[in-house]
Specification:
By secondary structure, this protein is mainly alpha-helical. The chain contains 5 helices and 2 strands; from the N terminus they run ααβαβαα. It has a two-stranded parallel sheet with strand order 1-2. Helix 3 links the parallel strand 1 and strand 2.
Length: 120
């Protein structure tokens, strides 16, 4: 993935942030109210917002390597009771109990990128 700028993140959020596949995917999941949902590459947190209709007492955790995407996700999830921020996030907002947080984990997220083809 090339480096995304804040401008790229804003463009993506406007054009694809509410893509229907997020809703459709979550609709087919059996999520308990106390479930823990981890969305790797959460983007605008659209899938997490849909999951929030089912997960009312659990945890919603979003990880994304693009700082502006994390900010957008936080803005869009701020009113949900399972929302909080990880204290390591650069733009940390109000703290919530450890089990209730949305976090940004830039260094760890980079480890999830494909490492390329193995040498033969």
């Amino acid at each position: 993935m090339s480096e995304w700028t804040a401008e790229t993140a804003e463009w993506y959020a406007k054009k694809y942030g509410e893509y229907p596949t997020n809703r459709l995917t979550v609709e087919h999941l059996e999520l308990a109210p106390d479930a823990v949902v981890l969305d790797v590459g959460c983007g605008t947190a659209a899938a997490l917002r849909h999951a929030a209709t089912k997960v009312t007492t659990g945890s919603l955790i979003g990880v994304d390597p693009v700082p502006r995407m994390v900010e957008i996700a936080k803005e869009r999830l701020a009113s949900h009771p399972c929302f909080g921020t990880d204290p390591t996030a650069r733009s940390a907002g109000p703290r919530a109990p450890r089990r209730r947080r949305v976090c940004r984990c830039r260094a760890r997220a980079r480890l999830l990128r494909p490492l390329g083809r193995p040498s033969t």
